[in-house]
Every structure is written in C-alpha cells, then in structure tokens.
Amino acid sequence: MLFYYVRHGDPIYDPDSLTPLGERQAEALSRRFALHGLDEIYASTSNRAILTATPTSEVLKKKITLLDWANEGHAWNELTVKTPEGKRWLFHRAEIKELFHTPEIVKLGFEWYTHPAFAEYNYKAGLERIQKESDAFFEAHGYKHEGGGKYKVVEKNSKRIALFAHQGFGLAFLSCLLAIPYPQFCSHFDLGHTSMTAILFEEENGYAYPRVISYSNDSHIYREGLPTKYCNTIYF
Description:
By secondary structure, the protein is an alpha+beta fold. It has helices at 20-36, 47-60, 72-78, 94-100, 103-108, 123-140, 167-178, 182-188, 219-223, and strands at 2-7, 11-12, 17-18, 40-44, 64-67, 80-83, 86-89, 143-145, 151-153, 160-165, 196-200, 203-204, 207-208, 211-217, 229-230, 234-235. The strands form five sheets. It has a six-stranded mixed β-sheet with strand order 5-4-10-1-11-14, sandwiched between helices. Strands 8-9-13-12 form a four-stranded antiparallel β-sheet. Helix 6 (123-140) crosses helix 7 (167-178). The model has no long low-confidence stretch (mean pLDDT 96).
C-alpha cells in the first residue's frame, strides 16, 4: 500500500476555508494525483481539508470519506500550551523546543509528557487518542500495528490512499505512525501547504515497516509556477 498524507492548502482559519492561492494549490495537486490515481480519498472534517481534497476527488471521480478524528480542532485541544497570548502549538514555542532537546526529555522518549514541566497538561491522552485512531485506520486497510512501527500484514493491500488533513494534527499522527517520539518529530519535520508525504507499506516476511519515500513534497507547486514561499514565510 502507498499512503499519502496531504496538508491543506493556504488557509483562511476563520471562517475555515482556503485563500485563492490555496485553491490554486489544491488544483495543482489534483493534476499531480491524476497522473497515477488514487483508490481512496479521506479528509478531515475541517472545511479547508475538504476543499483541498475536492479537486482531486472531482478529477479522479472518487468520493471523499470524512474522518472526524483527523480534525485539527481535537489536536488543538490536546497538544497546545497556554501562553500570555493564548494557546499555541508546542512546536511553535522556542522555549518548548529547547526543553524538548534537554537530556531529561530525550531520555524519556515516548513518555516525554511525564516530565514535571508538563504536569498541568494531559498530552498523554491526546497522543493515545491519535495512536488508537491511527491503528484502527491502518488495521482496516490490512495492517495491524504491533508496536514500535511494526505492522502485521493481515491482508496485503496494493491500493493508493490519501488523507487530506493538517499540520498540527499531522505531526502527531506521523510521529505515531513512524514510531518517532513527538518532541523530536515536531521539532525537526514540518509540512508545507498542499505538501504530499508518501509512505510505503511494503511486506517483508508478513510484516510492514512504514517507510517514508517522499516527505512534504510540493513539486506540483513548482510545476504550476505558483509562489513557492514556504507557508508564506520563506522562499525556496
């Protein structure tokens, strides 16, 4: 199985939608998916994710199946920190990233949230929710998670499937899927608008070890001559 994780296009967060640029990004992505096709299309219940998936759905004539557990609103309530300016993602705070890389938290690995600095939060529950839903999703496609990023191939699957969702949710979701502790993953990896991450589930003696073969790829944006400013901040 080839699994694609796609972040939504350039967003309008309130009301939940896409900018004109985001719409063009989504259309460019649909032309990319049209080259090889998809068997199944999934999207978060957020409007910006649905709007990003819609051009691909129309081009390929495939319905969009909505997954509320992938909605970023849930992750926002689970993986943010309180600041004087309001809630912020953990990975957006310089002091949190510095803390993430202290020997104490690195040593804690997947149980980083037990550090006293996070005592007032329940990050464990948020990550366990995402892990549980992720495991159920992939098991429904024939891959049963046995822990540590190792999946038993219950039913071999040669499909191409895509999930259109978000950055904040996606960093936690991908860290669960790839069995990389969240502090390290969200500090060193990011997802651009309409970027496509491709993960291969390839059987090896009855098991699959999801392997990233392309991460946060936005070559469709270059091909269409759209602005290549990463998340509206940095030009590449």
